[in-house]
Specification:
heterodimer; A: 341 residues; mainly alpha; MetI-like fold; 15 helices; B: 608 residues; alpha/beta; Rossmann fold; 6-stranded mixed sheet; 20 strands; 37% helix; 22% strand
């Protein structure tokens, strides 16, 4: 079975290659079709002359036909080079690798928080179907979904930073006066612990709390709903009736025979949300000055900075496929019927 | 069977009333049910759908759905009141009473190995084994008890890897894990093949009698109840209609409902019209429409000739993974011999040949997976055959792909009535739309051009009338119709284009026997009135016997026996046919019943 699953993973990852090529081409063409000329941005000097723009364009290779540019770009990618940002002057790979851990950290903390809250609440709602607690939980979930992240984030800052004073300055990943631990994994929470730097850990945790809570409150809604409805399905299923008829105790019936089955659809939803979150947290990253990839890509897009946008798209595609594969492998491990397919 | 007359009953139900809350009101499930089961006794509760037989059993053991509630009444197990006391109920459920359900595969947890599910039942039993090792040994012992061979290996399987019959045995093993005194079986063999049904029921009976187990069998199948129960309780619409010794109830039913039920159960020695309640005439012969002259069936007019029909499917693994290098393919743990087997073509139908004269009815019978439906679909041009010819009205329609046949003028000549009456109707179409749709598609070949609205309307009404569907029902949507009415829409939809060949794929298997009796009679009358040629696909040999002139018996995709209905049923030549016939529970006992009924009728002078 193990070799079966690893074979499956290899098959899926090989399947990403054509997707990446496709996404690469589409993004490449798209950013060039969008209005805005990078050359105009980077002409320095007091007067923008046609000649100067033309010179920059030639220097960037933008005067060549599109297919040649594309050809060069893919040649570059094969050597592991995603190009250089025109605004920062840094290699795109370096910037993305610096910023990706920040986005991942925020998403993972937020998802952990959301799962820890919404799954138990979903189960409570399902077991008390139609009671006031069911309604209250569903109402709260709906409110969380309806409030946009921007409003929710500002509200949280207002309450916890401005009024209560509980939270630190909502800027960045770490208090500027705290020594940054040596970067090993890129995840500050882990690196600070590895370095034994508890002060940094406390600061990093305090900094991530509010943005993570904002994201968690937004994504809790769908997770809670899917948990509730799949738990309701499981509780009315024939095999739970068998458990009751066979006199199984509460733990066996609801947790061992019920929860596992109910969590399968939740797993798929959570996977989709994580994959979406990592790249789409733009609003929250901007709001909390979080140095993640979402904020980076938006800045690049606004500056018609081609290379970072393309690199970002490729990275997100790859991440999406990897996370989806992980979800599929996990559900295959849990569900023998999926394994059989 | 021992029945200590003076001892108190093992299970006693007094005046049990159950209601269900719907969004608007509370509806009665069952009302004032009384029943008793003694040690070692076998009681059958029979009734049609909605009679409350399952509700009674679930209510007794506190297994009602959320919206169900026991309003009044008392349930006592071995003298102890259990229905008001959760602790008493817990001491009985899964300890003294074992439960077996319909649809066994769904009743097992799909994510847990069947052996582990039995193990949990063993650990929850009255006297759980002291060690895990003993418990595991007990699981194997239970599996062997329900006659599962290679028990060790099977205990590691997941439910989806086992057949329905095998899953039911696992459930029986679970129910027996704690050595209960009462076994409740709710439609334990519905949906299983007759031969599997026989094995399961025989196993149940042997286990019950060898350990003095009382059994409550809930079933819609009178024949099954007759063969396996000593006492019967007939229920209808939430009430007990009649109760007594099996033979007495079946041979001399006192209540009109029981009489109708007994009469409607098809069996040897009964004709189609016998299925209808005494006094009720077969449906009036439908006036033939003007479109076709009714001739006396012309002999030797060959309508259909099927030759060497074959259908093979490649397995999935072969199709989907062949492009991958061998090491990357899944299922590498399967040894090579098995792999070859798995990659081989699956022959759903092999070399089936038969012919049909005009006006003839042929039955195709077989168990699930025998290829009977696949054969009928190929003849109906809904599925392409792998090889073989289908000559219909002198033309080899087998040469035409099923896709292009849709627009062929021959399309309307072959029509199908499908198995699932509700599922085969578009839920967004009214009955009228459902019948009109094929008529519109076939207008060109049927009427040689546009059809006026009036004449279209007339034809739809005529088809509905032929199928016995009242005109006022035509504006309803499928979910607003009863099962029998849905089946009639399916029949009307097939008839509206005036086909020559009608393929009936299990048209009544989803219906209650009393409804089935009426629909079968209607179909038979139609066939004669319109001189239809019929292919009747069914797993129910009794129904096929009533409806068909000739029979094909299929197994594993091949025809094992064919001949006139009379010959096949009275002197089957193939061992499999004999096995099938022997597995039908009705035959023997109900024949005795019929015999008793006749003598009873003679005694009283008239049978009503």
């Amino acid at each position: 079975m193990n070799s079966g699953i690893s074979g499956y993973v290899i098959q899926r990852l090989l399947g990403t290659i054509p997707i990446l090529i496709g996404v690469g081409i589409v993004t490449f063409v798209l950013v060039r079709v969008l209005p805005g000329d990078p050359a105009v941005f980077y002409v320095t000097g007091p007067v923008v002359t046609q000649e100067a723009v033309q010179a920059v364009r030639e220097a960037l290779g933008l005067d060549q036909p599109l297919y040649l540019q594309l050809f060069h770009y893919f040649g570059q990618i094969l050597t592991g080079d995603l190009g250089r940002s025109l605004t920062t002057g840094q290699a795109v790979t370096v910037s993305l690798m610096q910023r990706l851990p920040a986005s991942l950290e925020l998403s993972i903390v937020a998802m952990t928080l959301a799962i820890a809250l919404s799954i138990p609440l979903g189960i409570i709602a399902a077991t008390r179907l139609g009671t006031w607690s069911d309604y209250a939980i569903r109402f709260a979930a709906t409110v969380g979904v309806s409030l946009p992240a921007s409003v929710l984030g500002i509200l949280l800052i207002l309450v916890f930073y401005y009024y209560v004073g509980f939270a630190p300055d909502p800027i960045g990943r770490l208090d500027p006066f705290v020594a940054t631990p040596q970067s090993i994994t890129g995840f500050l929470l882990i690196d600070s612990l590895l370095a034994g730097n508890l002060e940094a850990f406390r600061s990093a945790a305090a900094q991530v709390a509010l943005p993570a809570l904002t994201v968690a409150l937004v994504v809790m809604g769908p997770i809670l709903r899917i948990t509730r409805s799949s738990m309701v399905d499981v509780l009315t299923s024939d095999y739970i009736r068998t458990c009751r008829a066979a006199g199984f105790n509460w733990w066996t019936t609801y947790v061992r025979y019920g929860l596992r089955n109910a969590l399968l659809p939740v797993l798929t939803t959570v996977g989709l949300i994580i994959a979406y979150l990592i790249g789409a947290n733009v609003v929250v990253e901007k709001l909390f000055a979080w140095p993640g990839v979402g904020a980076y890509s938006i800045d690049a897009l606004l500056a018609s900075d081609y290379a970072p946008v393309q690199g970002y798209m490729l990275l997100m595609t790859a991440l999406f496929v990897v996370i989806n594969t992980m979800v599929d492998v996990l559900s295959a491990l849990v569900d023998p019927r999926v394994r059989a397919q | 069977m021992m029945k200590p007359l003076n001892s108190s009953p093992l299970l006693e139900v007094k005046d049990l009333t159950v209601t269900f809350s719907t969004s608007t009101e509370r509806v009665k499930g069952v009302e004032k049910i009384n029943l008793q089961i003694h040690d070692g006794e076998t009681l059958g509760i029979v009734g049609e759908s909605g009679s409350g037989k399952s509700v009674t059993a679930y209510a007794m053991m506190g297994l009602l759905a959320r919206n169900g509630r026991i309003d009044s009444g008392e349930v006592r197990f071995a003298g102890q009141a259990i229905c008001s006391d959760p602790r008493a109920l817990a001491s009985v459920r899964g300890k003294e009473v074992g439960f077996i359900f319909q649809n066994p595969r769904a009743a097992l947890n799909p994510l847990i190995r069947v052996g582990d599910q039995i193990l949990d039942a063993v650990l929850m039993s009255k006297r759980p084994p002291a060690t895990k090792k003993e418990a595991r040994a007990r699981v194997i012992e239970l599996l062997e008890m329900v006659r599962i061979d290679r028990a060790m290996e099977r205990s590691r399987a997941y439910p989806h890897e086992l057949s329905g019959g095998m899953c039911q045995r696992i459930l029986i093993a679970m129910a027996l894990a704690s050595e209960p005194r009462l076994l409740i079986a709710d439609e334990p063999t519905t949906g299983l093949d007759v031969t599997t049904q026989k094995v399961i029921m025989d196993t149940l009976r042997d286990l019950a009698s060898s350990r003095g187990l009382a059994t409550l069998l809930i079933t819609h199948d009178l024949g099954l109840a007759a063969e396996y129960c000593s006492r019967l309780m007939v229920m209808s619409q939430g009430h007990v209609v009649e109760e007594g010794d099996t033979l007495a109830v079946l041979a001399r039913p006192r209540q009109p409902y029981t009489q109708r039920l007994v009469a409607a159960t098809p069996r040897i020695g009964k004709e189609l019209k016998d299925l209808l309640p005494p006094g009720q005439q077969p449906p009036p012969t439908v006036a033939p429409d003007q479109g076709r002259q009714v001739e006396t069936p012309a002999l030797n007019l060959r309508l259909l000739q099927v030759e060497g029909l074959r259908k093979s499917f490649g397995t999935r693994s072969q199709h989907r993974q062949s492009w991958l290098p061998r090491w990357a393919r899944r299922g590498n743990d399967v040894c090579d011999g098995q792999r070859e087997q798995a990659d081989a073509l699956i022959h759903a139908v092999r070399d089936v040949s038969f012919h049909l004269e005009e006006g003839e009815a042929i039955g195709i019978v077989g168990e699930s997976g025998s290829g009977k439906t696949t054969t009928s679909r190929m003849v109906a041009r809904l599925l392409d055959q792998s090889t073989g010819s289908i000559v219909f009205m002198g033309q080899d329609i087998g040469k035409q792909s099923s896709r292009s046949f849709t627009s062929s003028p021959m399309r309307r000549e072959i029509q199908v009535v499908f198995q699932d009456p509700l599922g085969s109707l578009n839920p967004r179409f009214t009955a009228y739309d459902s019948i009109r749709n094929p008529l519109r598609n076939c207008t060109q070949s049927l009427n040689g051009g546009e059809l006026s609205r009036d004449s279209e309307h007339e034809q739809i009404l005529a088809a509905a009338q032929q199928a016995g569907l009242a005109p006022e029902l035509l504006s309803r949507f499928p979910h607003q119709l009863s099962g029998g009415q849905q089946a009639r829409v399916g029949i009307a939809r097939a008839l509206v284009v005036r086909p020559k060949l009608l393929i009936l794929d299990e048209p009544t298997s989803a219906l209650d026997v009393s409804v089935q009796a009426v629909v079968l009679n209607q179909l038979d009358a139609l066939r004669r009135a319109l001189n239809l040629t019929v292919i009747f696909v069914s797993h129910d040999l009794n129904v096929v016997r009533l409806m068909c002139d000739r029979v094909l018996v299929m197994r594993h995709g091949s025809v094992v026996e064919s001949g006139t209905t009379e010959n096949v049923f009275t002197s089957p030549s193939h061992a499999y046919t004999r096995e099938l016939l022997a597995a039908i529970p009705h035959l023997k006992i109900m024949q005795e019943v019929d015999h008793g009924q006749n003598s009873a009728a003679r005694k009283t002078g008239a049978f009503e």
